[in-house]
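Sorry, any thoughts here?
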Amino acid sequence: AGRDPGTLADYWKLIGVHFILQGHDLPAWREWEGLDAARIRAKAAQLSEQRRLRESIPDWLDLLGNEQLAADWDETLHWLNRPADVVLRTNTLKTDRNSLLKLLTAEGIQLEPVGDGQALRLLKRHNVFGTQAFKNGLFEVQDFSSQLVAPLLAPEPGMRVVDACAGAGGKTLHLAALMQSKGSIIALDTIEWKLDELRKRSRRAGVSNIEARLIESRKTIKRLYDTADRLLLDVPCSGLGVLRRNPDTKWKLQPQQLTELKTLQQDILQDYSPIVKPGGKMVYATCSVLPGENQEQVNAFLSSPAGHAFHLISENRILPQHQGFDGFYMALLEKS
């Protein structure tokens, strides 16, 4: 458009530019008088050589991503601008993947199995929340990358598991299914309404071994020290691996917020890791693609006094271009 929009007429011109760049011919409306389609397309082609404009990313974030991901950043950004798939996770407490596939196919929903677990990907958009199968708790909507976190923790029936950043409980419910709803899961969070949502989802899923507990102070955490066979730390993060689902995140996020998030992530590792009892395991996970929130956090923890009792077993760094799903990071650690 040549300048920042300041009037209603300017915004109409922006809409016209958008339609031209989408390949449409504009009707002869007075709002779009003077727009030169050939000039606009030529200007767009010139500007597209700049990655931050081509991929619509704030300048500071483009610089940071390029610094941390180097040769992977171009392709990562490109994939983060693609529409996200809708993926379901079969609730094995009530059904199996093949049965669910047949049931939803009969309702006219087109799906395909993904991976060796319980994932089904929609081939065509559909309101799955309106299906009877969803109301009966036969599945949850959960991206394929996210479905890899709970199995990495390898919980077993009868164990005591703590999900320390449970939120509304997507991974908590997956843990419960892997445990066949046997044993104990303590789901912690600092926000009560998220735990209320988890309780509602648990009832629908037929889960009976989850205790949702509000973190009211550090005492809530300290009471759990040396008690858990398994600990999941799905920590707050920038969400840069799931920009396709929340594209406004990149414009809301500021450098200072990212610094504060990294401090919080390390604080959680330091303060919550003692929950694991000797011989137990812990998974640190984020939905970020930045090493500064991922590998570097794990390395910093292992180098600290709190991390000396732990060792890294494995880690999985997922970029969206790898399999087409959300960007994720997960690390499995064991306490000696």
Residues 189 and 309 are 25 Å apart (CA to CA).
